[in-house]
């Protein structure tokens, strides 16, 4: 079998592997908290303003469209993750269904996505934290709060510090970090519910007219509903981090599907309510350009104290996004290292059941990025990597249903052909709606990835060396 088409056997994938295993410590409440923690973050706190600026009040449709594509991706993830409960997420499914080369591209894209999200959120958190500390009279030198892209800046020390703290938490153990994550998620949800409760009394339906001032949009048109949906997509993904925890789940057949689908339902409903409350409370143009639109709306409503509490909750709870994505990134590295596509020393698991080596390696990389790069540079490519992974998951769902219809499925996606098609088509349309610069650098990244694969990984994988039977 040619190296570009060889596939891992699902049965071999599920067989016990050599070396220490990840500990099974998670149940569905932990997984839902992991998903909600990853999804609810800088997206809803900042991107609602960006989306409203592109689509006007019709950003409600943008949220619904992004939510629809992500919901279909979530159903595909739920079916595939319960069939293949192994660390690696979309990379693992692609390896078993679409072949090694496609799996490498998906894994390489996920590395891009997770690394940039962790770094971008750390930089965003730093901005909130520095402002919060300034308000308390704790002023850090500017040289230590921004990277060298700003005159006088050296390193964004708070961004590096929060990554170090989250990494230490992950090294303590999966269950311990998941429990704290659940507590912080509750803080975020309460803050958003509080925003809705304050904003709704000021609701004015006149703010929804004109509803669609910039039209619906289309591929390559970077305004309107579709352009907003392509950006707001950032606010939804994160549930895929749940699938990376499959190997550490007590009852993956039940818990993974509840965690993935449940977190998407909760977040979609929450986002739509928050968006409606925000637009109803204030005209779109008043908050579209703000980096903190929800806090701005509260201040314009005369609720300065509530705005401060919302900012404080962001500082306290945004690290849940870091935790979820750093967790997922390390598990994707682990899966690729186990398969021999990355150096196998990265696959070592500590006595606490944690992939310590790869967690520390990942933290060093993302901390370096967060310390010296700008937020917009970090976030610009994250969506493209996610869209590639979601497309592969939708395709894997369809291909596996056709190729192996009788394989046991603990969770079955309803209308699988429609779910897979919506997922794939939506990802292509969203990708074409991204900025041309983003598309270009995504292709450059994967070009580099193919050079690495053809030059080293294709010859060092377990399948290449005959250490595992191909599927």
From TrEMBL:
Any Pfam family hit: AA_permease_2
Transmembrane regions listed in the UniProt entry: 31-52, 58-80, 101-130, 150-172, 179-200, 220-239, 260-281, 306-328, 349-372, 378-402, 414-434, 440-459
Chief location category: membrane
GO CC, any one term: membrane
Record membrane topology: Multi-pass membrane protein
Regions annotated as coiled coil: none
Subcellular location(s) of the protein: Membrane
Alphabetical UniProt keywords: Membrane, Transmembrane, Transmembrane helix, Transport
Gene Ontology MF term list: amino acid transmembrane transporter activity
InterPro entries: AA/rel_permease1
Protein name: APA family basic amino acid/polyamine antiporter
Organism lineage string: Bacteria, Pseudomonadati, Pseudomonadota, Alphaproteobacteria, Caulobacterales
């Amino acid at each position: 079998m040619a190296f570009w088409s060889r596939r891992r056997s699902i049965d071999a994938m599920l067989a016990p592997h050599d070396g220490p295993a990840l500990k099974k410590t998670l149940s569905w409440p932990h997984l839902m908290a992991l998903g909600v923690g990853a999804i609810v973050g800088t997206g809803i706190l900042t991107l609602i303003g960006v989306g409203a600026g592109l689509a006007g009040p019709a950003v409600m449709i943008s949220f619904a469209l992004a939510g629809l594509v992500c919901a279909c991706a979530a159903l595909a993830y739920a079916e595939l993750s319960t069939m293949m409960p192994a660390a690696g997420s979309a990379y693992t499914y692609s390896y078993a269904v679409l072949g090694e080369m496609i799996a490498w591209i998906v894994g390489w894209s996920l590395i891009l996505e997770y690394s940039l999200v962790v770094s971008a959120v750390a930089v965003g958190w730093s901005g909130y934290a520095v402002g919060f500390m300034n308000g308390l009279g704790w002023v850090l030198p500017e040289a230590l709060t921004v990277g060298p892209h700003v005159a006088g800046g050296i390193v964004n020390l708070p961004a590096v510090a929060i990554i170090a703290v989250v990494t230490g938490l992950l090294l303590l153990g999966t269950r311990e970090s998941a429990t704290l994550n659940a507590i912080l998620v509750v803080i975020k949800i309460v803050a958003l519910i509080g925003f809705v409760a304050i904003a709704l009394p000021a609701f004015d339906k006149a703010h929804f007219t004109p509803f669609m001032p910039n039209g619906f949009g289309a591929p390559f048109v970077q305004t309107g509903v579709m352009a907003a949906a392509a950006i707001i997509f950032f606010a939804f993904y994160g549930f895929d981090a749940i699938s990376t925890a499959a190997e550490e789940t007590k009852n993956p057949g039940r818990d993974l599907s509840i965690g993935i689908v449940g977190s998407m339902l909760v977040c979609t409903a929450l986002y739509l309510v928050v968006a409606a409350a925000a637009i109803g409370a204030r005209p779109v143009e008043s908050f579209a350009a703000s980096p903190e639109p929800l806090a701005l709306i509260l201040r314009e409503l005369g609720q300065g104290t509530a705005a401060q509490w919302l900012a404080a909750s962001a500082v306290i709870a945004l690290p849940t996004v870091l935790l979820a994505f750093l967790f997922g990134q390390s598990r994707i590295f682990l899966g690729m290292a186990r398969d021999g596509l990355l150096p196998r020393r990265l696959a070592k698991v500590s006595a606490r059941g944690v992939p310590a080596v790869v967690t520390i390696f990942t933290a060093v990389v993302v901390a370096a990025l967060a310390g010296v790069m700008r937020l917009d540079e970090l976030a610009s490519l994250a969506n493209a990597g996610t869209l590639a992974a979601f497309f592969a998951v939708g395709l894997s769902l369809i291909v596996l249903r056709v190729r192996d219809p009788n394989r046991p499925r603990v969770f079955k996606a309803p209308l699988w052909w429609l779910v897979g098609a919506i997922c794939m088509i939506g990802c292509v349309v969203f990708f074409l709606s991204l900025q041309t610069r983003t598309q270009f650098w995504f292709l450059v990244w994967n070009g580099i990835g193919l050079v690495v694969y053809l030059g080293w990984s294709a010859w060092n994988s377990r399948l290449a060396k005959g250490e595992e039977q191909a599927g």
